[in-house]
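Retro notes (design track)

What went well: tokenization of the new backbones is finally stable.
What didn't: we kept losing track of which sequence belonged to which structure.
Fix going forward: every design gets posted as structure first, then sequence, in one message. First example under the new rule, 343 residues:
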């Protein structure tokens, strides 16, 4: 049996106090990250250089008693490895040469895929060797829909009108892109487990912009196929799904995808999730990342409310979305202390 509390709870056990980690626990809110980041030419180079990515993933563990570390990389390494041009502009976020909507697979393919990602696999394997024995290692990927939004729009978007319109106008061509991403994402996650990842998280950060029928088609179904492919290679690796913004469809996502745990966004009501989701799966979440940045008595109260709401079943304490750069590092420490001393 594993001694890692995070993996025990992910396996369905209820712990005395919930294990804790935070999405984007490595990143710009930490001065030591900003210092390290200055040494890389580009953000992608940073992600592909094990010496840097390993250090970035370890930084938050030196400050806080987290129960898990997450691989340091980005969801957009997958389109980069498929052959799309991807770059990050300071202050402007990710940029991509948008795919041709009449021929979305032009110039993309898996021929060089794993070679391109060798640095990421090496980062996983070095982290696996370096982590303290009670800290679990999480691998991750973006879900096909979320990655496709960036590939189609050429970057972040306000309303995703371009990609949502494309999926209605020409579902067959759009499906070709999603199918390639299902295959690539599954292969990528399998390799992360081969290299030492002990759990996986699938980030569908933009699931919430889709209508009911579209969320089933472009979020639930691809997640189900990825989970099946990963489990065919690694039957016991737990997978956490994060269909951010899925609302009541969180229930369908949990029932249909085969995931082992679900990460809740800030809008999911605690009582509803405890009653309707926690009997089916492990809950992860869902402190508001903006409240974490704000701090104070309201933060302390909300941490207590979340711990209490999910005390009846398996729960991993986390945020509803990643730590924002303006977050004072002390607030993160405060939450970790509160959670460790809860109950
Ligand atoms: O501790 C960790 O979680 C770090 C690993 C990680 C990063 N990105 C590092 C990163 C993870 C798990 C991600 C996931 C990711 N990336 C998602 C899904 C989760 C979510 O937040 O919804 C998405 C949508 C992306 C795409 C992305 N990457 C955007 C939109 C941006 C720009 C906005 C921003 O926060 O800067 C990035 C860049 C990025 N990814 C940074 C980091 C630390 C900042 C870049 C830098 O340091 O120069």
């Amino acid at each position: 049996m594993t001694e890692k509390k995070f993996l025990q709870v992910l396996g369905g056990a209820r712990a005395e106090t919930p294990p804790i980690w935070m999405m984007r626990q490595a990143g710009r809110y930490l001065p030591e990250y900003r210092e390290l980041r200055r040494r890389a030419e580009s953000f992608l180079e940073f992600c592909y250089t094990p010496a840097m990515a390993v250090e970035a993933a370890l930084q938050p563990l030196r400050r806080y008693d987290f129960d898990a570390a997450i691989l340091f990389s980005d969801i957009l390494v997958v389109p980069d490895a498929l052959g799309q041009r991807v770059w990050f502009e300071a202050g402007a976020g990710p940029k991509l040469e948008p795919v041709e909507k009449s021929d979305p697979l032009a110039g993309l393919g898996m021929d060089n895929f794993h070679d391109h990602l060798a640095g990421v696999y090496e980062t996983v394997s070095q982290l696996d060797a370096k982590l303290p024995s009670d800290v679990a290692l999480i691998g991750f990927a973006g879900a096909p829909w979320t990655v496709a939004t960036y590939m189609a729009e050429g970057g972040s978007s306000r309303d995703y009108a371009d990609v949502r319109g494309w999926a209605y106008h020409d579902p067959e061509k759009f499906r070709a892109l999603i199918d390639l991403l299902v295959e690539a994402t599954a292969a990528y996650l399998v390799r992360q487990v081969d290299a030492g990842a002990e759990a996986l998280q699938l980030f569908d950060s933009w699931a919430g912009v889709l209508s009911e029928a579209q969320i089933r088609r472009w979020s639930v179904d691809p997640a189900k196929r990825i989970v099946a492919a990963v489990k065919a290679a690694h039957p016991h690796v737990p997978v956490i799904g994060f269909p951010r913004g899925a609302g009541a469809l969180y229930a369908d996502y949990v029932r249909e995808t085969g995931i082992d745990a679900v990460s809740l966004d800030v809008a999911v009501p605690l009582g509803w999730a405890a009653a309707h989701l926690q009997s089916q799966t492990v809950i992860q979440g869902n402190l508001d990342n903006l409240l974490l940045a704000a701090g104070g008595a309201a933060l302390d109260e909300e941490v207590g409310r979340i711990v209490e709401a999910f005390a009846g079943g398996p729960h991993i304490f986390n945020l509803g979305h990643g730590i924002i750069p303006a977050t004072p590092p002390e607030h993160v420490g405060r939450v970790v202390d509160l959670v460790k001393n809860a109950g």
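Added context from the reviewer: The CA atoms of residues 93 and 330 lie 26 Å apart.
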